[in-house]
Design goal:
The structure is a single chain. With about 220 residues, the protein is of the alpha/beta class. The protein has 2 domains: about 130 residues, 3-Layer(aba) Sandwich (Rossmann fold), CATH 3.40.50; about 80 residues, Arc Repressor Mutant, subunit A. It contains 9 helices and 8 strands. The protein has a 5-stranded parallel sheet with strand order 2-1-3-4-5, with helices on both faces. Strands 6-8-7 form a 3-stranded antiparallel sheet. α1 links the parallel β1 and β2. The longest helix is centred in the middle third of the chain and has 23 residues. The protein starts with a strand and ends in a 5-residue tail after the last helix. The relative contact order is 0.10. The C terminus is likely disordered.
Length: about 220
C-alpha cells in the first residue's frame, strides 16, 4: 500500500515538528515547511495528497496560499489550522480553498481523525471524478455533509440544534461550516424559522449517493 505524503506548513517550529512526528508515527510520510513560499516548491517536488497549513504566518499566510494551491494543485486536500474558530473565519477559509479546519489547541487524536477523514474524502472525490460525475459531488466528499443530507432525507426538516444533537457534534461552528457549504451548493435550504430542508437538487444527490454506495469499492 502506498504511503500518503502530507506537508505541514507552519512557522512555529515546535508545533510543526510535533505534527510531523505525530503523522510519521502513524505511518504517513510527513514533511515540514516553515513558510508558504518555501512550501510551493516542496509541493511541486513531493506532490502531497494533503497539506496542513497555519492561518497566520509571516509573509504569505494560509488564506493567501490556499487559492494558489487550489488553482495549481486542485486535487490536494487542505486542512487549515486556526486559533480563532468562528463561523465567519470558517466560511472565509472554505471560500479560500480549505476542505477542513482544526482549532488550536488540538489533541493528537483530533488531528489524526481529521487527516484520515480528508484522505478518505480525497479517495471518494477521485472516484466520483473518474466516473464523470458533476463537480457538485466534490462537496459531498465530506462525511459530515453526507450525514446531514441523510438526516434531512429521513427527518424531512430539522432545526439547527436538533440537527447538531442528532449528528452528535458538539462543535456548532463546524456544523455551521458544513451547512453553509451545502447551502452554497443548493443542496439544502433554510427558511425564516431557521428550519433546514433538502432542496430538489439535494434530494437527487441523496438518491445518487445511495445508488453509488453499493458500487464504489471501500
Amino acid at each position: 500500500m502506498a504511503v500518503e505524503t502530507i506537508l505541514v506548513i507552519d512557522d512555529d517550529q515546535d508545533l510543526r515538528g510535533s505534527i510531523v512526528e505525530i503523522l510519521s508515527n502513524d505511518g504517513f510520510h510527513a514533511v515540514g515547511s516553515e513558510s508558504a513560499e518555501a512550501a510551493l516548491e516542496t509541493i511541486r517536488a513531493l506532490k502531497p495528497s494533503l497539506v496542513i497549513v497555519d492561518n497566520m504566518m509571516p509573509g504569505m499566510g494560509g488564506m493567501a496560499l490556499m487559492p494558489l494551491l487550489k488553482k495549481d494543485f486542485p486535487n490536494i486536500r487542505i486542512i487549515m489550522i486556526t486559533a480563532f474558530s468562528t463561523v465567519e473565519n470558517a466560511v472565509t477559509a472554505m471560500k479560500s480553498g480549505a476542505d477542513d479546519y482544526i482549532s488550536k489547541p488540538f489533541r493528537r487524536d483530533e488531528l489524526l481523525v481529521a487527516v484520515r477523514r480528508n484522505l478518505e474524502e480525497l479517495k471518494f472525490t477521485s472516484q466520483f471524478l473518474e466516473s464523470g460525475m458533476d463537480d457538485i459531488l466534490a462537496c459531498l466528499a465530506n462525511q459530515i455533509r453526507r450525514q446531514i443530507l441523510a438526516t434531512l432525507a429521513c427527518e424531512k426538516q430539522m432545526r439547527f440544534m436538533n440537527l447538531t444533537r442528532h449528528l452528535g457534534i458538539a462543535d456548532h461552528t463546524k456544523v455551521n461550516f458544513h451547512l453553509k457549504n451545502l447551502k452554497m451548493n443548493n443542496l439544502i435550504s433554510q427558511d425564516r424559522e431557521k428550519v433546514y430542508r433538502l432542496t430538489a437538487e439535494g434530494e437527487k444527490m441523496v438518491d445518487c449517493l445511495q445508488l453509488l454506495s453499493s458500487r464504489i469499492p471501500s
